[in-house]
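Retro notes - structure team

What went well: the batch runner handled both jobs without manual restarts.
What didn't: labels got mixed up in the shared folder, which is why I'm recording both outputs here explicitly, each with its sequence directly above its tokens.

Job 1
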Amino acid sequence: MTPDQMFQIASTAVLPGWLALALAPFAPRLTDLVAAVVVPLLLALAYTGLVLAFWSGAPGGFGSLPDVIALLSHPPTAVAGWIHFLAFDLFVGAWITRTARAEKINHLLILPCLALTFLFGPAGLLTFAALRYALRQRIAL
């Protein structure tokens, strides 16, 4: 399988998890299973397989920015890096959804946070943290 094919498969495989998060109020248990367990663990398995198969032959490393650039210039390790992003962003999205449910935050309010997490990872987490803070301040008044 080529790195491009692996990229396409991983990018498609993550979509059911994000769809489950968007529709979480309708099936919370299924959402937790799909978005927090099944899809992230499948991605983690793919990531680990790529690292085991290609790490030793990849250029670069983590010691400097040029090393990271060299590492990500190698297609199989670039795909591993992409899968790393996909898995962790989805895991964070699932955490956001569970936390919002536990804190009784309206699901419509977290949808922008989920979209930002899907597209820009930490920006979505930051937005959710700001939302939680704002809601707590409003309640404290």
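Job 2
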Amino acid sequence: MILDVAGLKKSFGSIVVADDLDLAVAAGGAVGIIGPNGAGKTSLFNLITGDLAQDGGVIRFDGGDLASVSPQGRCRAGLGRTRQIPQPFEKLTVFENLLVGAVHGRRKTEREAAQSCGEILASLGLLKRANTLAGSLTLLERKRLEMARALATEPRLLLLDEIAGGLTEGECLELVDTIRAIHKSGVAILWIEHVVHALVAVVDRLVVLNFGRKVAEGVPKDVMQRAEVRQIYIGIEA
């Protein structure tokens, strides 16, 4: 397993965001996470990337315990992520945004990173926008830039946090094709998403969280048919 989370615990006073949580992602695998608002999904990502300190349990990446590894160290080890709300460096160009990821996430020189950054922009349909200030991008372009900047760090596991949120149906389909291509290139995917039909088009396993606890896991079609999952997602069409 490239990621192995065991007995993970985290709370903020009486609010529990990780309740003895177990989760695993195989090398090259694709796992989706769903759950209502407040289920602990983004907090889980923050724990994995080191933005939050765990209260208990173990997070292993490629067999190594991450407890004493900084967020920067986790990135350089091969953990990449996007944010639910895209956070580009708005006064830098699209290309410069990727250079930041490559130089600081991979410790490359700008010269070393230039070609790979150009290739990533081309693969995500952003090459024509390379010299555009990131602050002027559309929402879809910003989400693509979030993925591109994460890919510039050369991750082996990419964490996607509601990357399809706010997009039109057509834009969502484009994004699914892009994520499929990233996965096919060998990058493992762990994806939080409320747009369930987009998620199940890519992942091979689905995990359902509620109040920081895993309530279901398995093949996406089977998981979405379970009574407890339907109850959690009442009113949401999957």
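One thing worth noting from job 2: The mean pLDDT is 91.
We'll revisit the folder naming next retro.
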